[in-house]
Amino acid sequence: MNSSPKSLNDTAWEQLFSKYDILNQIAVNGQFKISARQIKDFREPRLMAKFDHTINLPKIFADNQLAILPIARGDYVISHFDAYYKFEADTAPILRVSLPKYIQSLDSTSIPSEAIALNCSVEDTTIEITDIQSVLDHVMIVQEPQIPFPQADSFARVINICELLNEQELSRNEVTERYAFDARQTNYYTDAARYLGLLKKRTSRATPIYELSDTGKHILRLNYKQRQLAFCSLILSHRAFGDTLRQCLEIGDMPLTLEIIQIMKKANLYNVSSNSTFERRSSTIKSWLNWILGLIND
Q: How far apart, in whole angstroms, are the C-alpha atoms of residue 267 and residue 263?
């Protein structure tokens, strides 16, 4: 059973479904048309009718295999649409080139928009095993923060969260609605970024608000190679990650789960005590270290 708290969209759509008997209308007619004016009685239509990913769908939509599509300006239709396509991961190699020095109108350390990004692929991108080893050898081990140890297996998504918050601070609900997350994932990934010192969290009127830390802002201004190695440094500054990578490099393979758990138990992790919790969190260590090793150019 999913115990995630309801979002504002969940609540508003449940009220709309109840008021207009939408499920029965769809059962009889195959669809239900609804106007922006009707939606606005409960919440802003621009927040209620645009869901970029299936995971963003309100619970009542997901539970009943429904989707919503615009049919005219200010009008929508709800039905059993197959509105989302699942893309396969692109495994094609990425060719990166340096930005020519004679081009002065583009700053490779500041590419804030998709339009600018399409005009340049940057910069010194070659990362070798010696670069990773150098980070590991010189990193300063930090004291474990009183923040939950990460349970967020995709480090790319941790970076994405930072990039999202590089534009503006956002509430927990806004992060959930604007990214491909449910509420629980928002907590996991924002906590993971906070664990590394990339985000700051404050509360406004009982609502969690997230913003990029000074460290996060600095890293996102770096060029590709410097940025990726800076992320590596933040990860490896935590003993459980650094010691596991050292063992990985020594034996030439990722340590077994039980071996990683033994390393974790020596790292004085915050609020991790049961064996089942250690095992779940060990998957994050494996995933983040695989992200680091995946940076190495063959």
A: 7
